[in-house]
Design goal:
- The complex is a heterodimer.
- By secondary structure, chain A is of the alpha+beta class.
- In chain A, 31% of the residues lie in helices and 36% in strands.
- In chain A, helix 1 links the parallel strand 1 and strand 2.
- Chain B is mainly alpha-helical.
- The N and C termini of chain B lie far apart (49 Å).
- The chains are: A alpha+beta, B mainly alpha.
- Strand 3 (41-42) of chain A pairs parallel with strand 1 (4-5) of chain B.
């Protein structure tokens, strides 16, 4: 089982978290997941993920939004 | 509450871009006008050339940039839907730009019909913006401090335009009206209501996001708007009620304190930022907030300084500090982040996951932006003493024109990258289809 991929975008300036996410998604296999940590809901990212067929779930905890993205 | 950043309803890039790219051109015109007219233009705030210069900066540079930012931020930050953004932006852009030029012509050539034309064009341009953006803000789903501040700003824009149209008609027709008192009320709603409320609302969203600071404190976001509107009420009421003129200084002090609180909080947040990189936006914002604090202190002290309190040059210097030092600097700083980010998002939308846009930091190279920032603050340093040293007015005007032209060229760099990359994406899509 591969190590879970986590991208912590909370200390990064836009659009660096999105750029890192796209690079990591490119390396994922079908059905694999990554988690992106942010301080806001990245609606621009959601729009692109929706168009590319990805699914995601978000969960808020203490000001951090954790987004689990699954490759189709 | 976390900020919701939505791109689903973002308008075409040309909608905000036309305003953001026209703004610095009005700054160039202001600088050239000052270089042409020289020191006389800065001798007193009531000189026609001074009023023309002021309106090139407030109705030209600031209004264009701020309306452009509104068209972009209302859908993206507040989740509001701007009705038919492209035709609305096209119409309002032409009305506002044409109205500003007519107003400047009215002041310079003292032609009554130009004042009436300016009132008609600027009034209808603002009416279009207030109606469409105001409707979008009224129905926007967000509930945060940014949305409240944007709503307050749009109400203030309507009021400042109303007083502005009234003043233009008074100047054109010479009907009996307290011109100077109304001008002060117009100015207070413009800088204290429209500009400060909008700057605070945009900052609540953009400063933590791009400068990686903590969020603005809740108490500040709660007290700032009530302070601003109470102050504007105290400043405006004496126009309606005889004998209440004593309220006006109280309102002015309260408005200055509101500006000082916002500037102090922004400087405090910048000190606590997680991102320790010093870039042009950070420096512009820091400069703008330091100028805002200097403006507050100078304006509060001015009535107590016997040598300066009646000096007609002193209010001109305060105006230069407010317009060039605070608001134009904040507009430039915001534009250096908003424009490349806009370009990046629109290219990302076009290219999808497989074709990433260029690095956002390469769109406007930091070295060029830093040079422009130096030119801007150098122009401020030369212009500030110019009301007392008239020989400085022409070089200060040329420096202002240079810094604004440089700003326009730097923003254009991001747009050139957008066009180049868009062509590549479309060419790649065509070759993939054939």
């Amino acid at each position: 089982m591969s190590t879970p991929v986590v991208i912590d975008g909370r200390g990064l300036q836009p659009p660096a978290p999105m750029e890192l996410t796209f690079a990591a998604l490119d390396k994922l296999g079908s059905g694999e997941e990554l988690t992106l940590l942010l301080n806001c809901q990245p609606f621009p990212l959601y729009q692109i993920l929706r168009r590319e067929g990805y699914t995601w779930q978000e969960q808020w905890d203490d000001g951090t939004c954790a987004i689990r993205i699954r490759k189709p | 509450m976390a900020l919701l950043l939505s791109f689903e309803q973002a308008p075409p890039i040309s909608v905000p871009a036309r305003f953001l790219f026209t703004a610095p051109l009005f700054g160039v015109l202001a600088g050239l006008l000052l270089a042409w007219q020289g020191g006389e233009a800065l001798a007193t705030r009531w000189h026609p050339t001074t009023l023309a210069l002021t309106h090139l900066l407030v109705a030209g540079l600031m209004l264009q940039a701020m309306v452009g930012a509104l068209f972009q931020l209302v859908p993206v930050v507040a989740g509001g839907n701007v009705w038919r953004p492209l035709p609305v932006a096209t119409l309002s852009h032409l009305l506002l730009a044409g109205g500003t030029l007519a107003l400047v012509g009215g002041f310079l050539f003292q032609l009554p019909w130009l004042f009436l034309l300016a009132a008609a064009l600027l009034g209808s341009g603002v009416l279009v913006v207030v109606a469409v953006v105001g409707f979008a803000l009224l129905h926007a789903p967000g509930r945060g401090a940014t949305l409240q501040a944007l709503r307050a700003a749009i109400v203030s824009l309507a009021v400042v335009a109303g007083f502005g149209c009234l003043l233009a008609v008074v100047l054109a027709t010479d009907i009996g009206w307290p011109l100077m008192e109304t001008t002060d009320v117009h100015l207070s709603w413009g800088l204290g209501g429209w500009a400060l409320a909008l700057m605070s609302g945009v900052s609540y969203a953009v400063v933590p996001m791009f400068q990686l600071t903590p969020a603005y404190s809740r108490w500040l976001t709660r007290v700032l708007l009530p302070m601003i509107f109470l102050a504007l009420g105290l400043i405006s009421l004496p126009l309606l009620v005889d004998g209440w003129a004593g309220l006006r200084p109280l309102g002015a002090i309260l408005l200055l304190l509101a500006g000082g609180l916002f500037a102090g909080e922004t400087l405090n947040l910048q000190r606590r930022r997680r991102r320790k990189v010093i870039d042009t936006t950070y420096l512009y914002f820091r400069g703008a907030m330091v100028c805002a604090l200097a403006l507050v202190v100078a304006a509060l002290l001015l009535p107590w300084l016997p040598g300066l309190s009646l000096d007609p040059a002193a209010p001109v210097a305060l105006g230069i500090l407010a317009l060039v030092g605070v608001f134009a600097a904040a507009v430039n700083g915001m534009s250096y982040k908003i424009v490349p980010f806009l370009v990046w998002l629109h290219l990302q939308r076009l290219g999808g996951l497989k074709r990433l846009p260029p690095d956002i930091n390469s769109m406007i190279p930091e070295r060029r932006a830093r040079g422009q920032l130096l030119a801007h603050f150098l122009s401020l340093a030369v212009l500030l003493p110019a009301p007392w040293i008239p020989q400085l007015a022409r070089p200060g005007g040329l420096l202002l024109a240079l810094s604004c032209a440089w700003m326009w060229w730097n923003l254009g760099g991001a747009l050139r990258i957008y066009r180049q990359f868009k062509r590549q994406i479309l060419a790649a899509a065509e070759s993939a289809e054939s």
